[in-house]
Amino acid sequence: MISKNLNSALAIIKTQSILSKKFDKLNMHGLGMSDFIILYLLKNSPGNQCRRIDLAGKMGITASGVTRLLAPMEKIGLVDRQSNARDARVSYVVLTKTGEQIFEEAKLTAEEVAEEIFSAVKKKNHGIMIDVLNDLIAKFN
User: Fold this and answer.
1) Average pLDDT, the chain
2) Structural domains of the chain in order of their starting residue, each with its CATH number
């Protein structure tokens, strides 16, 4: 027998694996899930830009991890790098017009995938699930 807490953790991990597989449909837009999340975060940041360190924090990864993810995105023109005029140590990741266009197209696919996944969840349970996940995020963020 395992504890309820461990059982919950294992269920979340399995769910994450299932979600990752379902969101592989983003590949048709040339994006992985992490790429999509970066574009989403930039699209919803003031001026469509964010400091690398803040982007890493929002994604729950290290600064070097976000840098590795951004390199190919910069290469294909989805994001750009912009230095801070007042502090050369600070750089921003900026969503390009191409990145914005790809995000909007991929968002439609992501919405379809999300609908497929969560259509089986009862509305009252959906709200509870969101609350539990947000509690976990808040605790460790």
Assistant:
1) 92
2) 16-140 (1.10.10.10)
